[in-house]
Amino acid sequence: MNKPLHLQYAEGLRSGDRAMLARAITLTESTNLEHRILAEKILEAVLPFTGKAIRLGITGVPGVGKSTCIEQMGLHYIQQGKSVAVLAIDPTSTRTQGSILGDKTRMTALSANPMAFIRPSPSTGVLGGIGAHTYESMLLCEAAGFEVICIETVGVGQSETDVQKLCDVFILLMLAGAGDELQGMKKGIMEWVDILVVNKADGANITQAETAANVYQQSLHWFPQNLYAWKPRAVCASSINPDGIFSSNTNH
Amino acid sequence: MVFLAVIQTIENFFNHMHENNRLSQKRKAQVVSHFKQLLQHEWMQLFWKNLHTNHDIEQDFLQHDFNPYTALKTEKERWYKLFKF
Q1: Is the complex ipTM more than 0.90?
Q2: Cα distance from A73 to chain B (closest Cα, Å)?
């Protein structure tokens, strides 16, 4: 006798079947009632196998280098022998309801790596920077045995902070020269930052990026301490620096 | 090419969070918050469905006699009675 469908999915996930994982994520994202019911059953079945991965939430304005950053980090973790799942959220058109879902094409090396799984998903009109079912997708990836989950938000502004509700570490990517000191003090996204990365710190931009990182680091002191007593850090980063090394790390 | 400073800071973060079960506390809080969100979403859908059964909103609106605040008030009162809030 055949097993119930949700248990077949759960077993498929546990055995690392990528196609099954992709289909399970599609079910969680579906608005069809039957799909939703099946998705909930699958989630219930796999929940005991979740929670073992580290969850990274990466956010920033459009064009700041989120995909590039994720690719570099993903390759680093793969080098360490860890499997990496990337959930890339893409904005949904409010006019046509479509999404490009093209972030995978920006992570060419990572998408070709057998240790990585990249899943672009539409934001489906949700405004917090993530999709309505990103949390569930993350749980499914964990159940499939992925050890590092990177959640890439849509390009955000100052108040899209929903990703902090589901990730362990909230990483905000910024660019140097994108405003004065007051920008760093504004409430909203800055209040939730665990690690602030001033990206594209290369070429003529290095000094400016270091100054920006210092300014942000000082600004981060103005916010009340978070519940977990972690002092947010501001660091510089570059993906085209030939040594791949950061010029500064302004830990305080 | 490796984002060394970022990777190092992430490692520091997790070392910090593993002390005194901070990470587990954070995740528990996230689960509760997510559950609330799910519940809210389900309730909103129910609410919306009920509102639709009592009003043909689009039709009312087209006839220019649809007052969203009156509709909301009526619906809320109905729910208060129904669930004895």
Answers
A1: no
A2: 6
